[in-house]
């Protein structure tokens, strides 16, 4: 395998494939990078002249795309052409939790990854380095290798018509949405796992050489391939565990009169604990934390480690509890029913500075309030109305926890009860209560007196992110409830 790569393909133009390849192209003008996807609309959006139409909203991304697109960065639907042309192929497709069959609700669905491997095996006529960029269960590289090696065997005659050799690398992505460009440019580390063979080492060298264009060599770490795959699941499990840990304490703070932000600050100054990822909230969301922990739990059960599985599953259980607790607090405070009451949601995205809503806590809180027939009015600076309806419909169809009592809501009922607004003032006009679900900076800057004046009294506000000025809001007259503040 060559150790200096000239042409890269990336299969999957999503939240990871798009920004990651844009940064590689920007930092390596000597490498041609082609990002391909089966979704023609996504590719058209990546190619749109108007950079505000890029399918992924990320601060700094339009500037990077503007610099590299058309020079050495290309977006296309020609998956086969890109595979054929390139020396290195990143697989960056989605790996959601399975919604059917064996492992339903727990295991990662690897059908898209498998399809990519089959397609590469079928199309390749020269040697390829295949890079796992998607987050995958430990030992997936083995499955990819088996497909790559056996698909070149003729089904009728059994004869090998091997045209190409393959190397498989694991190169998990650690970027967080909302800060993807900074995370990619200034990664704490780049992780490359390789197979224990001469080809594997050459491939590892080739990938390390690409990152070395902007990441210091000592931050590019290499491991065995299984360690690399498992490190990604472990990193996400540890990060999510910190949030569930502080959220568990938030419940105790509310009972005891302690303040969770004060507790977080006090423990975070211990350098062994550290101050990051201790912000108590309505619960973590995003496409990965829950999916990756459930996948880890599934793997532990598969390898007959029930105690380890139970330990990690509790992180997700606590997160479900936190979302439920928040919804219940709203209903309890509004005299035990929200039926027919107007509840305003500020924020729908799973965190600020992204238009991504996957697994956002807002979806689950909305669902609980809708079960009690609340009227929900949403304002989010970046999320489109159709996405909000799609999220609620998806939840109706794919409840993970089938023991939940929540009933099914039809699409018509959802559209009747949920309204999406273009301004926070419209969303909160005549509302009984406001719930803050995302920590968008602009929420802190609103004219809260004006919002209060437009609401029904008592004017309740539930700050699921602890971002608002408590004293100022109380002085205006709001009935304020924050997370973890007794
Ligand atoms: P995504 O859904 O945004 O993008 C995946 C894309 O792959 C979609 O556009 C889909 O159309 C395309 N695709 C699926 N099958 C295909 C095929 N056979 N051929 C061509 N295109 C195909 O997903 P994402 O958020 O970018 O996540 C991708 C992977 O990266 C996941 O495994 C995820 O766990 C991991 N990851 C995500 C993040 C994140 O912040 N979103 C961070 C680190 C790792
Ligand atoms: C997370 C990890 O941070 C990335 O390293 C990883 O690459 C990525 O998952 C992935 O594998 O997909 P992301 O989900 O994009 O990134 O965003 P985070 O900043 O981790 O936030 C996740 C959720 O936790 C959000 O809902 C956020 O609001 C919440 N959160 C985060 C808290 O409630 N408290 C905190 O202190 C931090």
TrEMBL record:
InterPro entries, sorted: 6-PGluconate_DH-like_C_sf (IPR008927), NAD(P)-bd_dom_sf (IPR036291), UDP-Glc/GDP-Man (IPR017476), UDP-Glc/GDP-Man_DH_C (IPR014027), UDP-Glc/GDP-Man_DH_C_sf (IPR036220), UDP-Glc/GDP-Man_DH_dimer (IPR014026), UDP-Glc/GDP-Man_DH_N (IPR001732), UDPglc_DH_euk (IPR028356)
Catalytic activity: UDP-alpha-D-glucose + 2 NAD(+) + H2O = UDP-alpha-D-glucuronate + 2 NADH + 3 H(+)
Residue positions binding substrate: 173-177, 232-236, 272, 279-285, 350-351, 465
A single BP term in Gene Ontology: UDP-glucuronate biosynthetic process
Enzyme active site: 288 (nucleophile)
Record pathway: Nucleotide-sugar biosynthesis; UDP-alpha-D-glucuronate biosynthesis; UDP-alpha-D-glucuronate from UDP-alpha-D-glucose: step 1/1
Record keyword Oxidoreductase present: yes
Key words, A-Z: NAD, Oxidoreductase
Signal sequence, renumbered to the chain: none
A GO molecular function held by the record: UDP-glucose 6-dehydrogenase activity
EC number: 1.1.1.22
Residues holding NAD(+): 12-17, 37, 42, 93-97, 134-135, 177, 288-291, 358
Positions in coiled-coil regions: none
One Pfam assignment: UDPG_MGDP_dh_C
Domain UDP-glucose/GDP-mannose dehydrogenase C-terminal: 344-470
Enzyme class: oxidoreductase
SMART domains reported in the protein's UniProt record: UDPG_MGDP_dh_C
Family: Belongs to the UDP-glucose/GDP-mannose dehydrogenase family.
The name this protein goes by in its record: UDP-glucose 6-dehydrogenase
Annotated source species: Sunxiuqinia elliptica
Classification of source organism: Bacteria, Pseudomonadati, Bacteroidota, Bacteroidia, Marinilabiliales
